[in-house]
């Protein structure tokens, strides 16, 4: 069915994309930085909690001793906590803004509930229970998630997907699901509600983008343990400094001890850790993928086997004419001419591609069809289509069908042509035979067209250690040919839900994590079994329930992006952890000589940055420690630039940039701040 | 020149040890070495052990702890009762309780910290039946734990990590006893003392004095003291005493014996996990740190003594010879003492107290990094593997996958156990040092004031917290405070690391390995070596840098420049 594209509904706002540094988000984040100072919030992050406690300690000491230096340290420690809060609030901000937009979309109008006797009743959408049946007509909003049990309609799903082109939904089969909050543009459908109130897809989506139920992912927990340990160990290091010093007559002021502690504990990664996680989920949302849990995003980074649907990911989905093979005694142009005639009225992509090829090869222009032009449409009985024009009877179709057709008219299907048919099949293409009257003219090859650049993408995946397996319903011959063209590592031909499931189990038994996409109800078990199951939004509710991600664009090729986002999330965490730890070296060289050079003049030799005074040295280290958080917020939100390469290459690069960079940068930064402080007259 | 020859011989012999002892150890712990099978069977029957029964990590740990506990009581008992026991030609009285307790723990934990002078405190029976026995036992325990961890890494979905009793018996029977026996003969041949006849009394007719020269079963203790990275000397002077370490040959032999098992275990590790490159990667990191520290210490010592320089003697062509035996010189002394502190041995052939501050720093640093280069028998391997797991975790995240080591995913539990195992030592050392410098009992002990005195205390706890046992000297540590605080350090430094290590072995054994691919972070690559070295230096450096700054660094820089 072709729909007359109705004017896109203006009634509902389209889901808008929000820029990461939107003014409103920054404003809200600034406010949240302060409200997040609540110790109950801080206690969830041991690293920042220590900083907060340290701030209180220095504040008390500052008041008691009325020291300007203490005040400066206190202010910068407080800023350190605020900056961390700001980073988290910024990461949450975009999700919150999107959730607000989504909330506006929730239907507040009534639903037309269908009573058992067939009469309608207007009820609030929120009162709908599973199993209720409602009616929606053009202009109505779908009140809740459901399945069409009667009718077909074009639906504007832009509220959910952001995509304004309407989609067709009809009862029966895999295109019967409708989502609450979408808009019916034409026709009338009867929908059986499948979601409990408050648990619709839209509700879940709001919770997900807002991060209400955000739980720490396994790697995040492991990293948090490491950061807590690195915080705990520095407490005795710093506390012991006082006795170590006083044994030799050197005093360590409490403000300085706190400053050193804050500089040593991994505040950079501690401050940015949750922002990185939230931003990772958000990056998926920006690409219109909803992950049901952070765990799934992390698992995506670990995936070692990708099950890829041939159609839509590897091939364009439609076969295209690629060659004419005339029978002996037939000119190629004659075959092209007949093929074109037979396809002129054929609106299928295959038909159009024959016309296009004929034009390319023999410059055969499209002809206007006269009144005597009689199009014979494809039927399941004849398995042929064609045209009767001016006494010419032209047919095209599957070789077997055309063979039967010409033989019934006393013609023959030559052996050499049969050989050609087999050869074309073996190459993974579909042979289409063309006949005129009892005479077979030849064969047209219809090829699956592999998407541009897909082979390179698979090569990249291989470099990253990910095996790609093409899933197709084609026979093994065809599948093998396309697999070779596309450069996948393996293929599963004549795939059924059962064989898919077997494949997943076999890979998992080898210790591998598997990702796949699916949309049909029969994909549901495999989607549930896979470690990363991406359901297409156009798919059934069963599929969406089974997977742990939903792609709102219903583009199976996005699976590759998802894997990259998962990896990027982990890399960002690892890189900033390395950076944070490496930073400590320079801070020691700033603070240790500053504390002790009065008692041990020789230790001034450790002041390799030649910082101007002990006070500016300590203050510079604290300021650097605070500012680096703010400086890295964009990186935390955007993620470390991902380059597909082998693990060793990625590691080498990141160790160089974040390890060595983390060692060197603070030396430069602290020195610069020190110079600035001196310029400002601080000493 | 002589230094170069020493190094060449050392490397060559260790290469041979790595190749053959490494494979042999794998065979022993794999149960494939059977040449003492009848003896083995007898021991198992006596112990009531079924050699085929495997233990999960908890049972393994309980076995280990109860074995060690019994050993502590046994050693303590002999020390206390030695006055009533035979083989006491000097008629030495029972050891005082605090000292006996400290010494028992010291030898059971492979530390061999000695708050006593052996020749005037311990009877021959105590030296042999209490101390030397524990030198074998504690070494066997150390290797067993390392093997258990490696089994955990190599296993595929298993509950068990081996059998503690079997590992200890086989390690002792097939490795420690035979090598120690042969080495003893060499020591005796070179002039080390071996007798039960009691001290020699020599009358100097000219000066009309009678000199008592202590002797005893020295050589038999000497061999396992080195081979088991124990370090407890028969005499107070330890490896500087000519009866223990008579010649340059025994000096080099000692160093070889110390390094043999720790170095060879990297090959055993590679063999057991099925990839020799993994073992080589670990060995390479160990070698780089060892060589760096040796160069640092040897150069520091060759610069001469600052105090001597200040006294007006500017030409010190032989370097800093204060506190060193002239028959060894600065290089052989530095090599011996660095070897001893880079492992958990702690025997010394020269006085650490008299090293230049930076030379002393070199010795301290080996212990402060957790003794991983190559570390004690077994303990070196399992400690560096804890660091490797940490490095894998940090580095693994950077390649975008849940980090895995040898196919085993490193998750929250593994990170937790590895960090506990790594951090228990620095926390113990820092806290106990802080307590010592804050309390009168602690402050009374050091001989010197200022940075040097601080170093004396810091060194004592660093040595005991790492089960090293070497003494900086200058610290009168046979007091209740130091005996008890030291015992705490030794117990935490030993079992505070072993328990998380065994738990880790259990947790890793239960995992299904992830197959290796292009996306796997390779732990046999140079970049991993760099990362592991970085993690070791940064974690060790960051925790101890302030303490070092106030100790050896402040002392060295007091003159305003690094070298005299």
Topology:
The complex is a heterodimer of chains A (683) and B (564).
Chain A: H1 23-35, H2 39-42, H3 46-65, H4 68-105, E1 110-114, E2 120-124, E3 133-137, E4 146-156, H5 158-161, E5 167-170, E6 177-178, E7 183-184, E8 188-193, H6 201-210, H7 218-239, H8 241-246, H9 254-264, H10 267-286, E9 289-291, H11 294-302, E10 305-309, H12 310-314, E11 315-326, H13 332-343, H14 349-362, E12 374-376, E13 384-389, E14 392-397, H15 399-408, H16 415-426, E15 430-436, E16 439-450, H17 454-463, E17 467-471, H18 476-486, E18 490-492, H19 497-509, E19 514-518, H20 524-529, E20 532-536, H21 541-546, E21 549-551, H22 558-596, H23 614-638, H24 647-679
Parallel strand pairs in A: 10-17, 10-19, 17-18, 19-20, 20-21
Antiparallel strand pairs in A: 1-2, 1-3, 3-8, 4-5, 4-6, 4-7, 4-8, 9-21, 11-16, 12-13, 13-14, 14-15, 15-16
Helix pairs in contact in A: 1-4, 3-4, 3-9, 4-6, 4-9, 4-10, 4-23, 7-9, 9-22, 9-23, 10-22, 10-23, 11-22, 13-14, 22-23, 22-24, 23-24
Chain B: H1 2-29, H2 37-47, H3 57-81, H4 97-108, H5 118-121, H6 124-154, H7 164-190, E1 200-204, E2 209-213, H8 219-227, H9 248-272, H10 276-302, H11 306-310, H12 329-342, H13 357-368, H14 379-397, E3 404-405, E4 408-409, H15 412-438, H16 440-443, H17 450-465, H18 480-509, H19 526-557
Antiparallel strand pairs in B: 1-2, 3-4
Any key phrases for this structure?
heterodimer, A: 683 residues, alpha+beta, 8-stranded antiparallel β-sheet, 7-stranded mixed β-sheet, elongated, disordered N terminus, B: 564 residues, mainly alpha, two-stranded antiparallel sheet, two-stranded antiparallel ribbon, 19 helices, globular
Task: Give an account of the 3D structure.
The complex is a heterodimer of chains A (683) and B (564). Chain A has 683 residues and is α+β, with helices and mostly antiparallel strands. Chain A contains 24 helices and 21 strands. In chain A, strands 1, 2, 3, 4, 5, 6, 7 and 8 form an 8-stranded antiparallel beta sheet that branches. Chain A has a 7-stranded mixed beta sheet with strand order 9-21-20-19-10-17-18, with helices on both faces. In chain A, strands 11-16-15-14-13-12 form a 6-stranded antiparallel beta sheet, sandwiched between helices. In chain A, a hairpin with a 2-residue loop joins strand 13 (384-389) and strand 14 (392-397). In chain A, helix 10 (267-286) packs antiparallel against helix 22 (558-596). The N and C termini of chain A lie far apart (79 Å). Residues 1-13 of chain A have low confidence and may be disordered. With 564 residues, chain B is mainly alpha-helical. Chain B has a domain at 2-274. Chain B is 63% helix and 2% strand. Chain B has 19 helices and 4 strands. In chain B, the strands form 2 sheets. A two-stranded antiparallel ribbon of chain B has the order 1-2. In chain B, strands 3-4 form a two-stranded antiparallel ribbon. Chain B is globular and about 80 Å long. Chain B starts with a helix and ends in a 7-residue tail after the last helix. In chain B, 62% of the residues are buried. The model of chain B has no long low-confidence stretch (mean pLDDT 93). Chains A and B meet through helix 7, helix 8, helix 11, helix 22 and helix 24 of A and helix 14, helix 15, helix 17 and helix 19 of B.
């Amino acid at each position: 069915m072709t729909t007359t594209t109705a004017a896109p509904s203006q009634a509902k706002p389209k889901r808008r994309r929000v820029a990461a540094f939107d003014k409103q988000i920054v404003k809200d984040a600034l406010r949240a930085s302060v409200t997040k100072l609540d110790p109950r919030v801080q206690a969830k992050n041991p690293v920042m909690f220590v900083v907060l406690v340290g701030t209180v300690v220095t504040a008390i000491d500052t008041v008691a001793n009325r020291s300007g230096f203490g005040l400066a340290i206190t202010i910068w420690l407080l800023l350190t906590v605020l900056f961390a809060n700001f980073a988290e609030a910024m990461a949450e901000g975009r999700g919150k803004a999107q959730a607000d937009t989504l909330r506006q979309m929730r239907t507040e109008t009534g639903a037309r509930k269908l009573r058992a006797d067939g009469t309608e009743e207007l009820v609030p959408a929120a009162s709908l229970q599973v199993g209720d049946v409602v009616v929606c007509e053009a202009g109505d909003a779908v009140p809740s998630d459901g399945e069409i049990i009667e009718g077909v309609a074009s639906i504007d799903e832009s509220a959910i997907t952001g995509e304004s082109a309407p989609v067709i939904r009809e009862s029966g089969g895999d295109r019967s699901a409708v989502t609450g909050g979408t808009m019916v543009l034409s026709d009338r459908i009867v929908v059986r509600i499948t979601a409990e109130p408050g648990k619709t897809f839209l509700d879940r989506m709001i919770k997900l983008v807002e991060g209400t139920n955000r739980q720490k992912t396994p790697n995040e927990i492991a990293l948090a343990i490491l950061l807590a340990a690195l915080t705990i160990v520095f407490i005795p290091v710093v506390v012991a400094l006082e006795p170590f010093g006083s044994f030799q007559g050197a005093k360590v002021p409490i403000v300085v001890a706190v400053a050193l502690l804050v500089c040593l504990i991994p505040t950079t990664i501690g401050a940015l850790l949750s922002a990185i996680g939230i931003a990772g989920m958000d990056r998926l949302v920006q690409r219109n993928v909803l992950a049901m849990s952070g765990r799934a995003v992390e698992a995506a980074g670990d995936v070692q086997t990708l099950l890829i649907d041939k159609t839509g990911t590897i091939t364009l989905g439609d076969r295209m004419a690629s060659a004419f093979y005339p029978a002996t005694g037939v000119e190629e142009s004659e075959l092209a001419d007949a093929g074109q005639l037979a396809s002129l009225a054929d609106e299928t992509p295959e038909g159009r591609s024959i016309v296009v090829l004929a034009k390319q090869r023999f410059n055969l222009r499209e002809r206007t069809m006269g009144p005597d032009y009689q199009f014979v449409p494809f039927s399941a009985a004849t398995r042929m289509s064609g045209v009767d024009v001016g006494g010419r009877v032209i047919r095209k179709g599957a070789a077997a069908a055309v063979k039967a057709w010409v033989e019934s008219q006393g013609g023959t299907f030559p052996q050499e042509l049969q050989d050609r048919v087999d050869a074309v099949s073996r190459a993974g293409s579909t042979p289409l035979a063309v006949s005129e009257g009892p005479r077979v003219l030849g064969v047209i090859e219809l090829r699956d067209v592999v998407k541009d650049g897909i082979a390179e993408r698979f090569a990249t995946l291989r470099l990253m250690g990910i095996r790609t397996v093409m899933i197709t319903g084609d026979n093994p011959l065809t599948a093998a040919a396309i697999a070779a063209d596309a450069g996948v590592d393996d293929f599963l031909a004549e795939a059924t839900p059962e064989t898919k499931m077997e494949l997943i189990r076999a890979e998992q038994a080898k210790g591998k994590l598997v990702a796949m996409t699916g949309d049909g109800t029969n994909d549901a078990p495999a989607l549930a079994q896979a470690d990363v199951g991406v359901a297409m939004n156009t798919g059934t509710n069963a599929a969406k329930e089974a997977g742990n991600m939903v792609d709102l664009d219903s583009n199976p090729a996005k699976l590759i992006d998802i894997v990259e986002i998962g990896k990027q999330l982990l890399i960002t965490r690892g890189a900033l952890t390395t950076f944070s730890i490496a930073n400590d070296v320079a801070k020691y060289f700033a603070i240790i000589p500053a504390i002790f050079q009065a008692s041990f003049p020789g230790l001034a030799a450790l002041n390799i940055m030649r910082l101007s005074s002990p006070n500016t040295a300590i203050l510079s280290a604290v300021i650097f420690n605070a500012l680096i958080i703010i400086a890295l917020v964009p990186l935390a939100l955007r993620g470390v630039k991902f380059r597909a390469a082998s693990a060793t290459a990625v590691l080498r690069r990141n160790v160089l940039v974040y390890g060595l960079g983390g060692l060197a940068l603070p030396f430069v930064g602290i020195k610069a701040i020190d110079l600035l402080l001196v310029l400002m007259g601080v000493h | 020149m002589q230094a170069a020859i020493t190094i060449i011989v050392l490397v060559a012999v260790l290469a041979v040890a790595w190749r053959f002892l490494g494979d042999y150890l794998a065979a022993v712990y794999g149960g494939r070495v059977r040449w003492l099978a009848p003896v083995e069977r007898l021991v198992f029957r006596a112990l009531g052990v079924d050699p085929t029964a495997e233990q999960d990590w908890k049972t393994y740990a309980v076995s280990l702890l109860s074995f060690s506990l019994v050993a502590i009581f046994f050693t303590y008992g002999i020390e206390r009762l030695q006055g009533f026991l035979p083989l006491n030609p000097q008629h030495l009285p029972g050891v005082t309780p605090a000292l006996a307790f400290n010494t028992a723990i010291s030898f059971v934990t492979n530390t061999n910290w000695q708050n006593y002078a052996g020749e005037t405190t311990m009877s021959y029976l105590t030296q042999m039946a209490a101390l030397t026995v524990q030198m074998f036992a504690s070494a066997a325990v150390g290797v067993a734990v390392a093997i258990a961890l490696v089994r955990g890494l190599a296993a595929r979905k298993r509950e068990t990590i081996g059998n503690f009793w079997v590992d200890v018996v086989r390690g002792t029977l097939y490795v420690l006893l035979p090598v120690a026996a042969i080495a003893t003969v060499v020591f005796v041949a070179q002039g080390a003392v071996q007798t039960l006849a009691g001290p020699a009394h020599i009358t100097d007719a000219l000066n009309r004095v009678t000199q008592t020269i202590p002797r005893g079963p020295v050589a038999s203790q000497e061999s396992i003291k080195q081979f088991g990275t124990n370090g407890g000397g028969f005499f107070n002077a330890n490896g500087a005493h000519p009866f223990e370490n008579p010649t340059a040959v025994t000096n080099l032999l000692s160093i070889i014996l110390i390094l043999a098992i720790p170095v060879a275990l990297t090959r055993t590790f590679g063999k057991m996990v099925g990839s020799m490159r993994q073992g080589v990667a670990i060995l390479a990191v160990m070698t780089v740190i060892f060589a760096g520290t040796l160069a640092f210490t040897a150069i520091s010592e060759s610069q001469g003594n600052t105090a001597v320089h200040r006294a007006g003697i500017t030409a010190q062509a032989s370097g800093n010879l204060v506190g060193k035996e002239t028959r060894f010189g600065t290089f052989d002394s530095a090599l011996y003492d660095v070897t001893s502190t880079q492992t958990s041995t702690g025997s010394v052939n020269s006085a650490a107290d008299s090293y230049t501050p930076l030379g002393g720093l070199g010795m301290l640093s080996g212990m402060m990094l957790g003794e991983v280069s190559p570390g004690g028998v077994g303990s070196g391997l399992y400690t560096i593997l804890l660091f490797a797991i940490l490095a894998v975790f940090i580095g693994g995240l950077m390649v975008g996958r849940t980090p895995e080591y040898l196919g085993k995913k490193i998750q929250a539990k593994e990170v937790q156990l590895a960090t506990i195992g790594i951090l228990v030592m620095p926390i113990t050392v820092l806290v106990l040092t802080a307590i010592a410098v804050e309390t009168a009992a602690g402050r009374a002990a050091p001989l010197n004031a200022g940075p040097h005195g601080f170093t004396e205390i810091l060194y004592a706890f660093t040595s005991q917290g790492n089960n090293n046992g070497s003494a900086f000297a200058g610290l009168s540590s046979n007091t209740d405070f130091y005996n008890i605080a030291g015992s705490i350090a030794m117990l935490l430094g030993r079992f505070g690391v072993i328990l998380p290590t065994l738990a880790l072995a259990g947790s890793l054994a239960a995992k299904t390995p992830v197959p290796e691919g292009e996306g796997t972070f390779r732990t046999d690559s140079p970049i991993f070596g760099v990362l592991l070295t970085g993690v070791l230096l940064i974690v060790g450096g960051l925790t101890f840098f302030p303490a070092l700054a106030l100790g050896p660094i402040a002392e060295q820089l007091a003159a305003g420049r690094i070298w005299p």
